Amino acid sequence: MQRSIREDSGTRRRARPRRSALGALTSMLVVAAMLPVALVALSGIASAAPVCTASGITINDRVVAQPPNSATPYPSTLVVSGQVGTISDVNVTFNDVTEPRTDDLDIVLEAPGGTNLLAVSDTGGLNAASNVDLTLDDAAATGLPDSTAWSSGTFKPTDFDATADEAFPAPAPAPSANTTLAAFNGLNPNGTWNLYVVDDSLGGGAGSIASWCLDITTNAAAQPTTTTVTSDDNPSFTGDSVTFTATVTSGAVPVPTGTVTFTSTGPPPRRTWP
Fold first, then answer.
1. Distance between the two ends of the chain, CA-based, in angstroms?
2. Alpha-carbon distances, residue 74 vs 18, 108, 117, 185, 245 (angstroms)
3. Burial tier of 247 (Cβ tally within 10 Å: 0-12, 13-18, 19+)
4. Measured between alpha carbons, how far is 21 from 37 in angstroms, rounded to an integer?
5. Quick one: which of 94, 42, 124, 133 has its CA closest to 214?
6. 0.90 surpassed by pTM
7. Residue 8 pLDDT level (bands cut at 50, 70, 90)
8. Are 117 and 194 part of one and the same domain?
């Protein structure tokens, strides 16, 4: 642009051309696009929504001349998939438990790969439970009661009988010496989890569990991300208002968390005009 203008002072001055700021914007885009690679490593903990069975369990009462009677189905299975990293914490919940005599109830939880825990055994005395919701969590304040009735709440895994005395029909594993859910820490959470439920005493009657759930937290491994940065005004010029949008995608489940920060490289170089 070569046209000239005359100011009131009479001084002749060449008009400034409308200068593109695209070069400076390109520098900012490159810096922003590089950020998520470092951010993924910061997301070390991932907690997905609890995974629950779609159907319940019938607790069959033990009868004469039987060993502990297995529930239906036996085992009850729960498939976990798509979780990233290894287990750092796991809780198990039993929904709407009804049992005429909870002292008869023994439950083993088995992870994919075979690690198991005798989660509940010989608790609650000869008392009945009706539509009780139980969550087992190592961080709970107390375990289940020995001789008083169950109530809904959160408890530590509890066994009031020696593990060696518990017998579970095949295909259940022999109960391990593990006493906490931390036994599953460090394992791959993905795969089929098995829940083995038996009634180990004559009389009392049948019971039921409406469903059961696993709430798993993992030490999420770093996962690659792809970042796309777009501008709503391209090319843009000095004085324009520009909005940048960064879209970060990842194949990880759950998706890693992080922050995209746009950083300016500084104002463009100043030019002088005659």
1. 14
2. 77, 11, 16, 25, 52
3. exposed
4. 27
5. 94
6. no
7. very low
8. yes
Q: Do 76 and 199 lie in a common domain?
A: yes
Q: Are residues 115 and 233 in the same domain?
A: no
Same domain, 80 and 34: no
Q: How many domains does the chain have?
A: 2
How far apart, in whole angstroms, are the C-alpha atoms of residue 248 and residue 231?
Answer: 15
Q: Are residues 63 and 31 part of one domain?
A: no
Residue 198: closest CA among 72, 55, 95: 72
The single-letter code of the amino acid at 36 is P
The residue with greater pLDDT, 167 or 3, is: 167
Tell me, yes or no, whether 271 lies in a domain. Answer: no
> Are 205 and 69 within 8 A, CB to CB?
no
Least confident of 26-35, 127-136, 249-258: 26-35
Same domain assignment for residues 127 and 69: yes
Q: What is the pLDDT of residues 234-271, one digit of tens each?
A: 887 888 888 888 888 776 555 556 677 777 666 665 65
Q: Cis peptide leading into 73, omega within 30 of 0?
A: yes
What tokens were used for 64? 């004469």
**Which residue range(s) make up the domain with 241?**
21-43+225-264
How does pLDDT run across 88-99, given as a tens digit for each residue? Answer: 999 999 999 999
Considering only residues 182 and 270, tell me which one the structure prediction assigns the higher pLDDT.
Answer: 182
Mean pLDDT (whole number) for 214-243: 82
Instruction: Retrieve residue 103's tokens.
Output: 């002292």
CA distance 92 to 209: 13
